[in-house]
Design goal:
By secondary structure, the protein is an all-alpha fold. The protein has one domain. It has three helices and no strands.
């Protein structure tokens, strides 16, 4: 029997699933469900990005590459400013 089952003790560090974030483990959320949702979202957005890049690069050529580079630079600047 777990001595902390009836109290509000935080989980031990060994039981926290670090890959999905500390907050999910601390809040006792279903990690499998959240991991699946994150994985599906990443897959769909990656596939959509590849699909759109293929379609737009054929239609607009190097202008799309310049736009993509500008977006990546803007994201990098934004992440450094946080």
């Amino acid at each position: 029997m777990d001595p902390c089952a009836s109290c509000s003790c935080p989980p031990s560090p060994a039981s926290i699933p670090w890959g999905d974030g500390v907050s999910l483990g601390i809040l006792n959320k279903p990690i499998g469900l959240y991991s699946t949702a994150i994985g599906v979202g990443a897959f769909v957005s990656t596939y959509l990005g590849l699909f759109l890049a293929r379609r737009l690069s054929g239609a607009l050529g190097s202008k799309v590459e310049m736009l993509a580079g500008a977006v990546l630079i803007a994201l990098g600047i934004k992440m450094l400013s946080i």
